[in-house]
Structure formats: structure tokens, C-alpha cells
Amino acid sequence: MINQYIQEKQNEINPLIKDECQSLNLPERLKQPLIYAVEAGGKRLRPILMMASFEAFQPKSTDKIIHPALALEMIHTYSLIHDDLPAMDDDDFRRGRYTIHKAYDDATAILIGDGLLTYAFQVVSRSNQLEAEEKIYVLQQLSQASGLEGMIAGQFLDLQSENQNLQEEELNNIHQLKTGQLIRVAIKIGAYLGGATPPQIEALDEFGRYLGLVFQIQDDILDVKGNKDDIGKPVGSDEEKNKSTYPKVLGLNQTNEIKKHYMQQAKKKYDDARINQPRLLELLQIFGERTS
Amino acid sequence: MINQYIQEKQNEINPLIKDECQSLNLPERLKQPLIYAVEAGGKRLRPILMMASFEAFQPKSTDKIIHPALALEMIHTYSLIHDDLPAMDDDDFRRGRYTIHKAYDDATAILIGDGLLTYAFQVVSRSNQLEAEEKIYVLQQLSQASGLEGMIAGQFLDLQSENQNLQEEELNNIHQLKTGQLIRVAIKIGAYLGGATPPQIEALDEFGRYLGLVFQIQDDILDVKGNKDDIGKPVGSDEEKNKSTYPKVLGLNQTNEIKKHYMQQAKKKYDDARINQPRLLELLQIFGERTS
Prior knowledge:
Chains A, B: It comes from Tenuibacillus multivorans. Chains A, B: This is Farnesyl diphosphate synthase. Chain A is an all-alpha fold. Helices cover 74% and strands 1% of the residues of chain A. Chain A is built from 15 helices and two strands. The longest helix of chain A is centred in the last third of the chain and has 28 residues, at 198-225. Chain A starts with a helix and ends with a helix. At the A-B interface, helix 2, helix 6, helix 7 and helix 8 of A face helix 2, helix 6, helix 7 and helix 8 of B.
């Protein structure tokens, strides 16, 4: 049931994000890697969360959430492209395919990343589905979450943490910035545009915070236990780079315990929001137990 | 007189852009290179043009133009940081100092660039000086001009043009995208926020287009004839990278003729806008004849 929902949303998002990029008037040699980048697929977790959060309040129409959802996925995609660069995490594969700088070159990867980031803000600012005030809210939230105090600080601290022995608290901080901010803002923007009350937004924001942690912990677990074909990149790549991960800091058993604890906390916050619709909870469940 | 104006505006912009960055809550090792990047100074041409364009219609208060002007300079600064990377133009010096990736490292330069770009949109979207509709206009214009169809395509084509023999038309196209778009949008946003009529905005937009070309042509001339201490980077660096420049394509004499022609065209467009204030014209004059 929830898997079908995810599939439906992916089928909705994939052509739309490609169309947005196809519509650009670009030199062919620039458009090609752009399309390659947005076709890479992936789970589309962030836009799906945003849409599910919106639909918890507005089950009938999703028009209003489309542009923010596409923008968020563009920001996520840009961040992966830049993170994969040799100067950063230096990853050659993602989702079973060459990363952009391997398929093209570093300059192209830098520019496509810059372009997707800029385009995200453009897509929201010119949307014909949102009022000016709504656009401003979305742009403020997106730029804050993905900016220097958010995702970028997270990636910076993560790079600095290679070969360091971190404690759980520092690890939590890095992940709340690096992956948590975009997941959290997905839920928050969805709820806001859907018309949630301020207390509901607050509760869901906390739900999103725990969901982000659960997602990252599962990522770390998969890097230890996963299967290359499932996760699309070599297993053990965190280990190889000597990155601090939850299993390394806490051991696998305690990592699983903590994940369970955060899932329970998330559920509590979700109950606080008093929504008669379990979809976000089902998403929490499935992303906390995914195998890829 | 106009030099004093430029100096005054620089003295206004420099502390403000630094303050915006200082106010961020960042790890020290991330804040340091950020401040280094925005303190690099430079002419602040783009925000000055935006402010002068605004003041042509609103001579009394400049509050409304400050955040868009700072955002534009942040976007310009990010573009220089990324362009200077080894994977791109590979420049070690700018404005007489080490470029960010030389002073720090490539990862830091990529992240600081990403951060300044994102912050530009944040600074406008949260501005307390602008109405929601004004913010949206500014964000649309900035993201369009600096995006894939604008500045990024220009940088991409410029990189591809190394070792190519371009014709004047292709060279114009690259420069109108790479440097022209931001100069043009400076003028346009200034006029719009100042309350210019649509025909005035249109005429000034064309003025901005010619001004951008004049600026780039003078840049190329300085790369041939300039003095390292004046321009802050080695003379002849375009030649060394085998880049097409106006002097190379057209010879120095004809390059000077074309510059003169574009300056005349710019002046015509300025006259069409019917503004009782010569400051933008004086800026055209001085930037077209600058020695650094």
C-alpha cells in the first residue's frame, strides 16, 4: 500500500523534474549532463515526504506542492553532485551509475550542481501555483535548510570528521545538518502549504527531525550490512574513508536500539500533530527499515 | 566626482556584506574562509550599478536596494570562487590575493561558493525592506540571470572555447551570458525597485546589455595591456590559456573601435530612458576606460 504510494509519487516526480530541465534553452553539451543528473532517479524521498505532509491536510489537490517538491529534489541532487566530487567525498558511483564528474568531468559537475541549485529557487519564484507570500515562505525555508548554517555546514563538518573519532552527540549534529535539514524542511513546507496550524507544524517539524536521524542511521547500517546491487555504491565506503558512523561509534546492536528509540519519538510527535492519516508514519516505518 | 560616489558606495557595501556573513552561526573553520571571500573587495561594480540605477528614480532612500545589491555581489563572488577552481579556470590569484582554494582547499572553495549562492537568495527572501511581490521579482531576475540559461551557460561555453578560434558573434554570446547577465540584471532590478516605467526599464535593460559588453571588452584589453599590480592577477593569463578575446579575434585597434561603438549605443539607450541624472552614464564612462 505505502509502496504503491511511493511508486505513484516517483512516477509523478520523475517526468516533471525531467520536463523542467528539458524546457531550458541550453547548449546541448550542457543539457545532456543536466538530464543525466536528474534522471539518476533515486528514491525521491524528500519530495515524497513533502507531498505526503501536504496531503495530510489537503488530500484533494497536489498542484500547490509540485514546484516546492521539485525544487527540493533539485537541491538534493545538486548536493549529491558536489559531494561526490574528487575534492569532496570522491565517489565514482551513485545509484549504480557513474557520478557526473566521472561520466563527464569535474567542471561540468560543478556547473550542473550550481545550475540545479539556482534553478530550484527559480522554479519556486516563478511558480504559477503559489501566492507571493507562500513562495517567500518556501524560499526562506529552503535557503535556510540548504544553506551555510544548514546542509553546507553539515557537509563541511562531515569532511572534517574523516579520521576523527566522534562521539554520538557530534555525529548527531553533523547528520541533523547534512541530511536532517532537507528532510525536516520537506515535512515543514508540506504542512505549511497544506494549511496546518502552528502547533501542528511544530509537532511535525520535530517528527521530521527524528525521521532524518532514523534515515541517516539506516544509511550507516546499510553501509555496513548492505548489498552493493541494492544500494548502488560499494558497501563499506564510509569505512574506507574512515568516516565516523553510528555502527562504528556505538556498535551495531546499540545503533539498532537508538534507531528504534528515534522511531518511537517520531511517532509520539506525529500523534501530537493529531492528523487522521497514517501515511507519514508508514513512510517513517519503511524508510527506517529499507534495504537500499 | 563619480570616483567619490564609487568610493562611498564601496564603503557602504563592504561592511554590510561582511556583517551579513559575520552574523551567521557557523563553525569557525567555515566562517573564516567565508569572511576571506567577501573581504576580497574588488570593485563592487554590480551592486554599485544596481544602487545607481535605483537612485536614478529614488534619490532619497537606498534602504530598499540594499539586500538585492548584497545578494547580487554574493552571487558574483560565488561565481568567481567556482570559476577559479583548478577544474575550471585554475587561477591562483585574484585581486592580488590567493584565491579561496589556494588559501584553503578545493572542498572549502566549492562549499563557500555554494553557500554564498544560497545565502544570496536567503538574504532577499527574508529582507524586511521589500514587499513580497518585490522579493519575488528580484528572486526571479537573479535566478534567471545567474542560472543555467544565463551566467552558468556562459561559463560553460567559455571553458569549452579554450583552444578554439571563435568569431566575434560567438564571443559576444559567451560574454553576454558570462558577465553580461549580472550587469544587466543589476540595472534592471535597480530601475524596477526604483519605480521606473516599463519603457524606461526596457531602455535601461538595453543600456545594461551594452555596458556589459563594454566592461568585458575592457577586461580583455587590460589582459593584454594592463599592469599586474593594477589588475591583481598576471597579465596575459587569457593568452596563456589560449582563450579567445576581443583583441585576439579583432586586433587591438578594432577592439577599441567596437568598444567606442558600444559606448555610443549605450548612451543612446540611456537617452531613451529620459532620466535627469547622469550617474549611470558616468559609470559607463569610467568602467569603459578603467585601468584595473
